[in-house]
């Protein structure tokens, strides 16, 4: 009898998962017949894991760029069990994928996984329910939230200044952690009127703890641990990890349900008293709109269910917390690597004399701040790659023909139902044929005069694919932009940042 090695455990778990998940068997066999097998791309690294080992172990943000440089704008790589997955940075193909949202939707198995954790919020919605889940992220609503951004940005600044003043020789500060506290506080108040007080208390709040533990990957970041956890979750095993996950999800739902119930009661009381709605958080606006539609006789499929309203809380936390803190951290990192840019930006912010509470209009009138934020979003997109799954057989047009593995020049991509399609935002944002020979450089001044190819880039914001475009574009992009500007404005007016030379900074592919 052989030893029970990690590899044998992996093979056993894989077999059990496949037996349990019969739809995965159909998906796997279907993928092996996919027309994508004819596309150029890297060889599989592993029988079961394809190229995923390379992706998971990637310690730099250049992997997608290296692949597209070698194989072209249209390629494929291997996922689980040798499945073929399309990767493209061809803009004509991307436009087609992003605008044909009924044909290219979130993979069902990924959507169900999100729904289990986040509930029935926007991120986990299927095609039919996604259309009616569009919270109030318009410009007027965001303008009302700017005082919250300023309050928390200034609170963070004061905490950091105090730490600096207490150490005259300078001090090393984990900015990602502190920015994470700040953005959590912001999304709590602005998103659903909840006080986390993370800047004051750290991770002491029960909802914050539960949410952090659901997404915690720090305890054991090894590949084997990830696969073991995946197998246990798919099989529904009552493991310690699964039981802990369920308990934390129950905590999130319990607290979230109370938040929703309290808001409904408050809004009903205000309506009864004939008073104007005083709540400015996004969830209150969403609930008020939902209640109004119901009162006007809207059909059930035109309004949000209680579970869908509850799901927005976890959705706001997942989509509006770590992404902004990560982007702002990358902004500070970029400024430390380019002292000239940091000096120029600090001078603009200090000379503006806008005080501690700039309005949304004030922040929009700072041209160099705008250029710096745009360049950060270009070079360091929070989500480096997005995924879609074909709901039917389809043909995707290409702007640049490619040569397949059989040596035939192709002007279209044929895919079949269930094929996975990935768009590399990172590679597009750094493509030299779009942004010029200095595309890999952080240079905010490029936004004074963009290349023609960059001006033709689609995207919901500023010639960038960072927030995507089409029906599933990031609805919270205005929120993220203004929040990032408010944080940088407050911090850089008072503090000059530098990297601790003894700390190694590693950017992962994501």
Question: Explain this structure to me?
Answer:
The protein is of the alpha+beta class and 510 residues long. The chain contains 23 helices and seven strands. It has helices spanning 6-20, 22-32, 52-57, 63-71, 91-99, 108-118, 127-130, 139-165, 175-192, 198-201, 206-214, 223-235, 240-273, 282-295, 306-320, 322-337, 339-352, 360-364, 367-379, 425-429, 432-435, 452-455, 477-494, and strands at residues 74-78, 84-88, 104-105, 385-390, 394-403, 409-415, 420-424. The longest helix has 34 residues, at 240-273. It starts with 5 loop residues before the first helix and ends in a 16-residue tail after the last helix.
- Principal-axis shape equals globular
- Indicate the percent of residues in helices: 40-55%
What is the number of helical segments per DSSP (H or I, 4+ residues)? 23
Span between N and C termini?
39 Å
Low-confidence stretches: 1-7, 217-224
Strands, total number:
7
Radius of gyration: 24 Å
Could you describe the largest sheet, including whether it forms a barrel? 5 strands, mixed
Estimated share of beta-strand residues:
5-15%
Cross-sheet strand order for the largest sheet: 1-2-7-4-3
Give the H and E element order: HHHHEEHEHHHHHHHHHHHHHHEEEEHHHH
Mean pLDDT: 83
Helix- and strand-based class? alpha+beta
Distinctive features:
8% strand, five-stranded mixed beta sheet, 23 helices, single chain, two-stranded antiparallel sheet
Short description:
By secondary structure, the chain is an alpha+beta fold. The protein is built from 23 helices and 7 strands. The protein has a 5-stranded mixed β-sheet, sandwiched between helices.
């Amino acid at each position: 009898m052989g030893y029970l090695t990690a590899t044998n455990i992996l093979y056993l778990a894989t077999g059990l998962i496949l037996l349990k998940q019969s739809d995965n068997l159909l998906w796997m066999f279907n993928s092996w017949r996919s027309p994508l097998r004819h596309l150029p791309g890297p060889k599989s690294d592993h029988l079961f894991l394809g190229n995923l080992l390379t992706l998971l172990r990637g310690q730099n943000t250049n992997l997608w760029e290296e692949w597209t440089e070698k194989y072209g704008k249209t390629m494929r790589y291997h996922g689980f069990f040798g499945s073929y997955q399309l990767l493209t940075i061809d803009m004509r193909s991307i436009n087609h994928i992003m605008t044909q949202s009924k044909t290219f939707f979130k993979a069902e198995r990924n959507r169900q996984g999100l729904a289990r954790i986040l509930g029935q919020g926007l991120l986990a919605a299927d095609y039919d329910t996604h259309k009616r889940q569009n919270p109030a992220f318009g410009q007027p609503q965001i303008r009302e939230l700017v005082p919250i951004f300023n309050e928390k940005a200034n609170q963070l600044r004061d905490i950091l200044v105090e730490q600096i003043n207490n150490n005259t020789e300078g001090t090393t500060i984990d900015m990602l952690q502190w920015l994470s506290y700040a953005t959590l506080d912001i999304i709590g108040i602005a998103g659903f009127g909840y006080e986390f007080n993370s800047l004051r208390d750290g991770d002491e709040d029960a909802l914050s703890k539960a949410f952090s533990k659901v997404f915690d990957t720090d305890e054991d970041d090894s590949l084997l641990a990830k696969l073991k956890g995946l197998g246990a979750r798919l099989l529904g095993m009552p493991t310690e990890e699964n039981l802990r996950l369920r308990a934390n999800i129950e905590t999130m739902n319990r607290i979230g349900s109370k938040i929703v119930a309290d808001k409904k009661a408050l809004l009903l009381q205000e309506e009864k008293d004939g008073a104007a709605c005083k709540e400015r958080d996004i969830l209150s606006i969403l609930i008020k709109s939902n209640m109004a539609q119901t009162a006007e006789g809207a059909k059930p499929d035109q309004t949000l269910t209680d579970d869908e309203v509850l799901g927005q809380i976890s959705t706001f936390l997942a989509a509006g917390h770590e992404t902004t803190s990560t982007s702002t951290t990358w902004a500070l990192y970029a400024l430390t690597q380019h002292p000239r840019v940091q000096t120029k930006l600090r001078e603009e912010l200090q000379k503006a004399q806008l005080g501690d509470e700039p309005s949304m209009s004030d922040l929009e009138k700072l041209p160099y701040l705008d250029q710096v934020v745009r360049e950060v979003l270009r070079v360091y997109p929070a989500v480096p790659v997005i995924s879609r799954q074909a709901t039917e057989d389809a043909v995707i047009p290409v702007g640049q023909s490619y040569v397949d593995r059989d040596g035939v020049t192709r002007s279209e991509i044929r895919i079949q139902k269930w094929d996975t399609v990935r768009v590399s935002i990172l590679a597009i944002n750094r493509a030299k044929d779009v942004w010029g020979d200095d595309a890999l450089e952080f240079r905010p001044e490029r936004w004074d005069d963009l290349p023609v190819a960059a001006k033709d880039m689609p995207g919901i914001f500023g010639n960038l694919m960072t927030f995507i475009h089409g029906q599933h574009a990031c609805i919270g992009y205005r929120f993220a932009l203004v929040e990032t500007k408010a944080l940088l404005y407050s911090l850089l007016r008072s503090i000059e940042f530098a990297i601790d030379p003894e700390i190694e900074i590693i950017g992962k592919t994501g």
